[in-house]
Amino acid sequence: MIKGFEFLLPTKIIYGIGSLQQLTEELKQFNPKKIMVVTDPKLISLKVTDKLEEALKGYSYIICDEVEQNPKDHNITKAAEIARNEQVDLIIAFGGGSPIDAAKVISILAAQDGDIQDYMHKKNSIKKTVPMIAIPTTAGTGSEVTFSSVITDTTEKFKYTVKSPLIAAKVAIVDPLLTITLPPCITATTGIDALTHAIEGYTSLRAEPIAEALGLYAVSYLTENLEKAFKNGNDIEARDNMMMGSLMAGLSFGHSDVGAVHCMAEALGSIYDAPHGTCNSVLLPYVMEYNLTAAEKKYANIANYMGLFGPNDLMTAAEGIENIKILSRKIGLPSLKSLNVSPEDFELLSEMSEKNSSTLNNPRPINKESYLKIFKRAYADS
Ligand SMILES: [Fe+2]
To answer: Which pTM was predicted?
Structure first.
């Protein structure tokens, strides 16, 4: 019997090569008086924002480009104050996961007074938000279709998730052309983040059949195309398929959850401020090894969607995990050791991972001791 569930879709998705052009039409329905564009300064210097600014001609807008990677609480406080003072009535998030996650919580504080900490620590409930349009420029985050935002509490050095359908983008314009200028290393790290979303979304204890289908199908889009997009950034077909894989993976984990890889990666990102995709990539196969006994059938299905068919589920699943290690090496991803992580921090990192709410949805029960073993194993194998 399939357990009953709800599947919410508050975001209109506009997908396709060149779909950024449709922003002009979408803006008409919002009729904004003041827009805040939340973006990354690198995208401005690479002129990726030029097409966006073209579409914004005739509108009054301000640009907020001070959100850091692993967005911090103080980034949000500052941007939200500007948004309130300027009476911003529409936010456009343009970039990777950091600007989109930041825009989601700025949208709360732009609509009402308050402190970001109150929402991170669930002391305040979200009553209203300023509408937000998300335009991803990486094939990785999936944040354009999720209801959550991960923000670092810089005092506690801990990443908190703010979750509500109210912070979801009203419109997601998903245009693979925007990923053409992504350098190979960002293509690799964001691509592995998407693959982690697909695998964790599919295997999460909260996964229902729709999230499972989306996650599994995303595995095939992503694993077939990541190396191609890494080797040739201008391969538009590979970029297109990566973007679709990332979108489906976002829909999958957005409706189920992530698992132990993200719990560990978020702990690493909080302490070392390393890129989110990199943190996932150094841990993904080792968490899969740990989960194997509890998720043998699903991991075998994942391997099948990578085109691997072994003599039985266990061997097929193991082959799939090995394939992810090989793919990571082919696309130049680093190892845990190369992130200059100190083994002395493994205790703390394991404690933080256990505290992450997604720990509960990992397919195999996991606690601090198990996390510690995985960190040590990933480090020893580096
Ligand atoms: Fe992620």
So the answer is: 0.96
